[in-house]
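Researcher: Re-running this chain for the archive, since the previous output was lost when a drive failed. Same request as before.
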Amino acid sequence: MKILPALLIAGLVSSALQAQSLTFVAVGDTGTGEEKQYKVAAAMAEVCETRSCAFALGLGDNIYENGAESADDSEFIDKFEMPYQELDFPFYMALGNHDNSHFNTGDGLDNFKGDFQVDYHYREDRLSDKWKMPARYYHFSMPESSDKPLADFLALDSNPIAGGLDWNHQFWRSPYTKTHRRWIRDTLTASEGTWKIAFSHHPYISNGRHGNAGKYDGLPGQGKTWKTLIEDKLCEKVDLMISGHDHDLQWLAPTEDCEKTSFIVSGAGAKTRGLTNPNRNEAWYQAGDVLGFFLITLNDTQLTGEAWEVDQDTGKPTMVYSRTITK
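Model: Regenerated structure tokens:
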């Protein structure tokens, strides 16, 4: 039997790692069950047919306008299963303010409703097993079968921290934030992926209507605790943070307080809205009043993000921007 030289073995391993790649979709603010959601879903299916998408990140507001009333709520069928029935990959979901709302206003005051979306993950009689939300916040690595994952993903629960108050003490901001911060720290310490990617509903920075954390909706202090958490526990530690909340598409440059992390807003999965202040933060790409999603491909040394806009009349997807980050 031939024994391969050590240098040759090392080269083969290196080549295998280099060849390994992963492609996924990032899309948020989806759960309307209406025509625009179906058009974006069809566009995703068309693009992913040739791009071999492994999964999608769902960035919150999964069930408009005020979340599910139970794990058996028919809205899971109307606003997730049916719109995405032609897609054969899993969706790793995060919770948004509308998923936890008491009224139809996105108030985010009923955080217990988010638990129904976790419970749906464990229902054995679902139409599909696409919905992935094993906990309100959780971690997974990809590819799943790899000894050395390309990426670690952290699904964050932003609403109890970035949103309004809650009369349930389990979701009071201060203790919930402390627990979440500790989990983020421990998860990132143990992670082994080449890339670290966090995703949530509420953004750190945005040129859309809701704006930057710490001054959401023009209100000084609104989202300040979320801003502090990101700066303390995620900035410089994750390569990319992906969020929704604003119904537009943006890829924003790192900031002075967060120099090694870039930020994607991808909240155009079913609703549209204009950019209220396109000069608020440095943008590599931004577009308001559009439907669309981001497609992200990464390997051991490069991460490439593509912005795909979807024509609101025809549903035709068009790749309008691409950028590559190198390790």
